[in-house]
Amino acid sequence: MALPGELSRDKTDRLRPPAPDQAAGEEVAHPVPVARPGPRQRAARLAKRVARRVLGERGVDRLRGYLQVDEVLRMGSESLRRTAELEQQVASMQRSALEAELVKAEAHAASINLELLKGEVRSVIQALEDLGMAIAPAAGLAGAGARLSELRERVNGLDRRLRSLQAQVVDTRSVAPSGSATLPPGGAEPGTGRVAAVPPAAVPSSALFDYVGFERRFRGDPEAIAAALAERYLDLLVANPPVVDIGCGRAELVELLARRGIEAIGVDTDPSMVAEARDRGLDVRQVDGGSFLREREPGSLGAIIATHLVEHLEFADLVELLDLAATRLRPGGVFIAETPNPTSLVVLGNSYILDPTHLRPLHPSLLTFLCEGAGFRDIRLRFHAPATDYHLPMIDEPDAPPWTKRVNEAFTKLNSVLFGPQEYALIATAAPAPEGPGEPQGGAPVHRSNGATGEEHP
């Protein structure tokens, strides 16, 4: 039996059922393909049909109710979980609040302790201030250290003076029967072989005035002064031995030279200073500078230094000291004199008039003139320690008007005149030996200095 032939498309379309929304007898010009449901949709439809057949419509409604109850239970469980979380957060906040209260209480206790400590500190500060005022009535606690140093220095000075007096008592007890005293070592008298007596120390104008303590308070720390002198003059003195320090005081410079192996002699009239220096093993003589130089051979010294001495001398004694120094130095020897600088008015109005033992200020030009008259050559001036704390400030502005230049120049002059260097040193060289009969002595040209400006010029 033969199979029928293949049906055409129009015949197959007639066999398809019409669409629900298509009117009867109406042909679809362009049929729209219908999307096939997915596996989940087909499974859901199948489950619904089975539920309807097994449970009926009422069973389906009950099942929906059961599903709603389960949703309610799930929501309740979620609410319980959220409530537990909120309770935990509340408990954490309560703990934080409790900790904050504890911290607040501790802070309050700490503030109370702090106030108590402040009271104790104020009490200690007041006690220290009272102690400072008791030690240094004019300066208080800030000056207590300096005052204690001064007291220590005075005690040491009194001890040195006591030892010196004891030594003098021993010397007076060792008088020979003929009435001639056994003299301390100070050099043999020419032609006799006997030991020359050391001239007695100058009698102070008032036995109640403690110059050692005065100098310690108002001149400054001795160690700092010694360091400054060493920085300024030590190398020059080392190059010109032997050295004599006239008015050596505590002989710090002599000690520094001795440590370098340089022959150095100190000269001073204060017995306590001399005793202290001798206790340190230094060669220090109790004699005035003029007397010491008169006993030295001409041309026997390499350097003579006198720091803050010449302003204490009478004018005739100063001229004699310069003449002796010029002759006792060997040719090319060095003479150094450091003294307050009167061209700086802050010196005259402050440190110079403060010292009652100062006789007269020495202008740099005057001291230069005196040294020239004594025969010194190559005289130079060095100025030290300007009073910079008092200096008027300069106008340093990029956009400043032109007239500020004149103001700065005026300020510079005022600073130089009012608050210039507080000390100056004259450094001179002894004249060289004559080269031959009738020939002039050679040497470097003499330098004079304008003391007001500190400028050197030939």
Overview of the structural elements:
This protein has 458 residues and is α/β, with parallel strands linked by helices. It folds into two domains: 41-135; 214-457, Vaccinia Virus protein VP39 (Rossmann fold, 3-Layer(aba) Sandwich). Helices cover 51% and strands 12% of the residues. The protein has twelve helices and nine strands. It has helices at 9-15, 39-135, 144-173, 211-218, 222-238, 252-259, 271-279, 289-294, 315-328, 345-354, 364-374, 404-419, and strands at 243-246, 264-268, 284-286, 301-307, 329-340, 377-386, 421-429, 448-450, 455-457. The protein has a seven-stranded mixed beta sheet, with helices on both faces. Helix 3 (144-173) packs across helix 7 (271-279), helix 5 packs across helix 6 and helix 9 packs across helix 11. The radius of gyration is 55 Å and the shape is elongated. Mean pLDDT is 77; it is low at 175-206 and 438-458.
Outline, from the CA principal axes?
Answer: elongated
CATH architectural grouping of the largest domain: 3-Layer(aba) Sandwich
Give the strand line-up of the largest sheet: 3-2-1-4-5-7-6
The string of secondary-structure elements, in order, is HHHHHEHEHEHEHEHHEHEEE
Helix content: 40-55%
List how many beta strands DSSP finds. 9
CATH first level of the largest domain:
Alpha Beta
Radius of gyration: 55 Å
Number of domains: 2
CATH superfamily of the largest domain: Vaccinia Virus protein VP39
CATH fold descriptor of the largest domain: Rossmann fold
